[in-house]
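QUALITY CONTROL LOG
STEP: pairwise intake check
CHECKER ROLE: data steward
CRITERIA: each record must contain a sequence immediately followed by its structure tokens, with no blank fields

ENTRY 1 OF 2
RESULT FIELD BELOW
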Amino acid sequence: MDVVTLMTEAVIVGWLATLIMHLEIEHIRVFDFAIAVTGAALAGGLLGPLLGVSLAGEFGLTLSGTLVSWVGAMTLLAVANLMRYGRLIRERRSRRRAAPMQPLVNSEE
């Protein structure tokens, strides 16, 4: 298994897992992305060979290896969210209600 192939797939799969697990894309942290990449790399590098799944095939990445990495990224990110927020998926933040619009110029002139 090529380390460059493993890291490339881990970054792509980790990014997709982070987008799926967070409902607000604007508030994704680098820490969450790092957790997902770590989960994908561990699953693809350690769990994949134990299950007999090859990460790279004759023509590039394999679907089974990508799915194993994706499951690892989603699992580790879900565990981290469960420990931090008490939920598997991070929910949207409550948005502050804006103050009612006021006219810029007094219209009673």
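ENTRY 2 OF 2
RESULT FIELD BELOW
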Amino acid sequence: MRVKVKRLRDSLRTEEIGLRILIVYDTGSVNRNTERVAKAMSGVLKEKGFDVDCLYVKDVDLAGVKNYDCVLAGSPTHVLRATRLIMRFLDRFAKDEFSGKLAVAFDTQLQGRITGNAAMGIKKKLEKLGFKMVMPPLVTYVEGEMNEMQLKEGEVEKTKKYAEDLAEALHP
């Protein structure tokens, strides 16, 4: 019974808010850190009543992207920038194709002076496509040896707080 009540409450909140959000991400590590960030944001936004689809970049229907009101795009930082896969995905759309739609960029990266920043490249590309950025990009940090990278302590909590702030920005 509790599950049915929660689902009903969630469906009512989604209708009330009426914003459809796509979270699209690439992930490159064995531990799937960028996916973990995407799913943490998705969980919070769903709890807040948004209609959210959280998809690996290869699973996104290109024609359906236009049906979303807001797109969150993220990638791990590889060789100082976003992965080719997420950038190729964004390159498939025309300049100003999403004029007036909302967006957010996010990434996972090592913390350091010369580590690069995937989120900034994604942000610039989203802006060229006509998206209006809702908030500054979310940068989450990883640590560890290559192929064993983990999100740093506190990064999941930071991500959830960011998603709460995003929910507030999208529906004050």
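INTAKE CHECK: passed for both entries
DESCRIPTIVE NOTE, ENTRY 2: The helical segments are 2-17, 33-47, 84-91, 118-128, 155-170.
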